Structures are given as C-alpha cells and as structure tokens.
Amino acid sequence: MSPRAGQSGPPARTLAFVESPVQLLNVLEWAHLHAGRIAAGAQEAPGAPDAEGAQGAQGAGTGGADPAAAARPGGSDPATALLPGQAAVPVPALPAPALPAPAALGAVPPQSRRAAVRRALGRRAPGDRAPAAGADLTVVVLAPTDPMTRGQLRRMADLAREDGHRVRWEEARGGASAPFQTIGGLAGVLRRADRIVMGDPFSRYVQLLLTITRAKDLVVVDDGTATMEFVAQLARGERLVRWHRKGGRPGARDLLFAPVSSSARRRLTPNARRRVEVFSSMPVSEIPDGVTVTANGFAWTRARFGPPTVTAGADMVGTSLVETGVVDGERYLEAVRALAKAHGATRYFAHRREHPDKLRRLAAETGLEIVRPELPLELIARRGPVGRTILSFPSTVVHTLPLALAGTGVRVAVCDIDPAWLTDTASPRAQGFLSGVTGTARDVHRLAAVSLA
C-alpha cells in the first residue's frame, strides 16, 4: 500500500516533519503545551481511520517489514534486539490493569473485545473519538535507514496515534527516486498548511521542503544540543551547519545545496508576515530578533509515564561522539570503563546511533549490561526502573533528564570530555561546544574528566 494512503478529508493545518524519535517526542511535548492553539481542526468522525490508516502496520507500526530484520541478533525487532550475551533489562512486576471479566466479553464480537481490552489498558481503540487538540496535526515521518532509529520511531508513532494525531510515514530514503516521490507527494499539503513544525532545521530534506511551503507560522522543536547551535547561527546570520562539522571546508554537495540552505535560513528568520517559534529545553543565550522561545518542561512525558521505580545503583548513558568523529574510540572505551568503576554503574543505555561493534567491545571489556532502548531515554527513564544516579558525557540528556525525572530523587551527573580524547579531525569548535553543553546544564552534578592513566 502506498505510504500516503488514507488521507481523505480536509488538509491538516499543522504539519510536523521528524526524522528521529527525539524530534517526535518533542513534537508531542509541543502539541501538549499548545493544545489550545491547534484545536481549530474538526474532530475525526467516529470510526474514521487516521491519516496513515492501514498503512501504519506496514510502515510505521510494529509489524512493518524491515529488510535488515533477519540479520539482527535477538529477533526481528530493531528496538528490542540484544547484543550477543546481553540479558534483557529486569523490569519489576507492576499491578495488572483491571481488564473486563471474561464472562462479560463472552457474547461480544472479537473486534469489540479487543477494543474493550485496549480501553482498559488506557489505549484508544479504533473508532474512538480523537481529542480536539490533535485533530489538525499530522506528523510526517521522513524515515531514516538506521534500524534502531526506525524501531524507536515506530513506537513513538504509535504513541502519537494514541494521542489522536495523524501519522504519515514516508520512505524518504528508500531508493534513488524516493526523494522525488516524497517531495512530490507532500507538495500539495505543504502549500495548504498554516503551520510547519520541524525537528531538524539543519536537515537538507527539511530545508528543501521549506522552499515549498507558504506557512506563516514556523516552529522548531528540540533536536538535542543542535538546537543551541541553530539559534546562535540564526542570530548571527550564519549559514546553517551542524556544530561538529563547523570549521571544515564545505564539500561539493554543500556548495551545490547552498542556495537551498540560504533560502531556508531566510524563511526561518521572522518578519512582519512570518512567525518563528523555538520550543526547547536547551539553554538559549542568543535569541534572534522576533523569534519566540518557549520552554519545554516535558509535561507530556511526566503526565504519560511514571513515576519510575528508583534502584540503588547507577546507570550510564552512551553517546555517539565516536560515531560522529569527535572523540577517539579507544579513549572513549577507557573513559567508560573508568567512570563505571568509579561510580559502580552496571547498565549502559546505548545511543541509537552507536555502532554494534563498539557496543560489543564495551560489554566485553567493561562488564556493563548494554541496553538498547525502544524509546527515547527520557521516556525509558520515566517509565523505569532507573538507577538513583545517571552518569552521562555532555549530551542532550543532561538537560532533558532532570526535567523528565523532576521529583523522583534521581541525580544526573555529567562527566566532561578531556581535550586529549578528541580526534585530530574534530571540529575546532568541538571542545568549546561540549564544555558549553555541560556548563549550561541545570540541576546536574558536574564531574571532572576521569583519569585514563
């Protein structure tokens, strides 16, 4: 079935473009906070499919086929696959939900039985009326190729549907012709949309889509620490380039795409006819003239999950700084080993972009239990169980976890990156940027860089 199946009815007034589970999480946080602003769309009629309809199971649901599934250890699901020798995370028993008695379901058709069970579990059954707040928001997933990211996105898409939002899954990178099909299929709804929400203004895909839209209301939601750099670059009128690439010479593709990037920067600059909002949990020091900055307090996450069971131990959060070429792999391995030993950490929550070979080495040489989360860490931690101390290197989570875990007693501790750990090819700005991420974090305990001697 086509990824664009099931889109009958009036066009969405708000389109959100996401390429990662963290971006989708923050779209849901934005929608939760701004429910009154986006409630103008008509509620879906009872029994009507959402915008993704039956395709959800094919492209964005848990049953979607993935070409790389057969090669993954631990099963076909990328979000739950374990590394060789890895044990599943123990989860404490929770009180069972009050399901309808079997006798009461005996004379009910099977489809109605399933709906009753879903409602008892707190999930919306097909045909339930969606809340008005989500009626005019369509989330467009520009699907990546990475299996872990796809798995987390599928689960976040399920949560978005359960909140009443439409989800449109686009295989935007599924071959040479995929970009043309995706952009061509989105052109009409882009021109009719009143508001565009985006998770990654540095994305070439998003920048290209911005050249099509006529929306007068643009919203940038958090994509991690990159949001800090985006706001600063916009304030200074600089070209949009990711922090870990800044300082290098533009490549041929950068030069070819430069006119589109410049156009996107102009469109993301507010004026009398266009409003720009940045929705972020990150510290923003340079605010461009006319840009509205709204704080993300993770209210949706706290309302939807937890509070978690807090254990006595410590957990560690992984980072993809090795994969992005910023930190040397051997130095990182030594730092993780030293940090885990110093603080008694037993579990390592892997970043979705960490390479499996690196994680196997970490498991073998540190003794840490490697956990590959099925959802963004903010939701995993809020759902629990979670250690009383969470150890992290400079990353987004040192800003977001204290908000998501507010009131739970969990302490977030961040370890600085020693300049000696950086690679020879790291951006000249890397050390300063990472220090800024650590230094601006609120409600965290700051650790000195561990000694690798």
Structural features:
six-stranded parallel sheet, alpha/beta, 15 helices, 453 residues, seven-stranded parallel sheet, disordered N terminus, 13 strands
Widest β-sheet, arrangement of strands:
3-2-1-4-5-6-7
What is Rg?
22 Å
Report the β-strand fraction as a percent range.
5-15%
Largest sheet: 7 strands, parallel
- Mean pLDDT score: 76
Q: What is the terminal separation in angstroms?
A: 58 Å
Unreliable spans: 1-11, 40-114, 116-135, 243-247
Structural class, by secondary structure, is: alpha/beta
Helix amount: 25-40%
What is the string of SSEs from the N terminus onward? EHHHHEHEHEHEHHEEHEHEHEHEHEHE
What is the approximate shape?
A: globular
| DSSP helical segment count | 15
State the total count of DSSP E strands.
13
List the helices and strands and how they pair.
Blueprint: E1 14-18, H1 21-33, H2 55-60, H3 102-105, H4 110-120, E2 137-142, H5 147-162, E3 166-170, H6 178-192, E4 195-198, H7 204-210, E5 217-221, H8 226-236, H9 252-267, E6 275-280, E7 292-295, H10 299-304, E8 310-317, H11 329-343, E9 345-349, H12 356-366, E10 369-371, H13 377-383, E11 386-392, H14 397-404, E12 411-415, H15 430-439, E13 445-447
Notes on the structure:
The structure is a single chain. Helix content is 34%, strand content 15%. The protein is of the alpha/beta class. The strands form two sheets. It has a seven-stranded parallel β-sheet, sandwiched between helices. A six-stranded parallel β-sheet has the order 10-9-8-11-12-13, with helices on both faces. The protein is globular and about 55 Å long. The model is unreliable at 1-11, 40-114, 116-135 and 243-247 (pLDDT under 50).
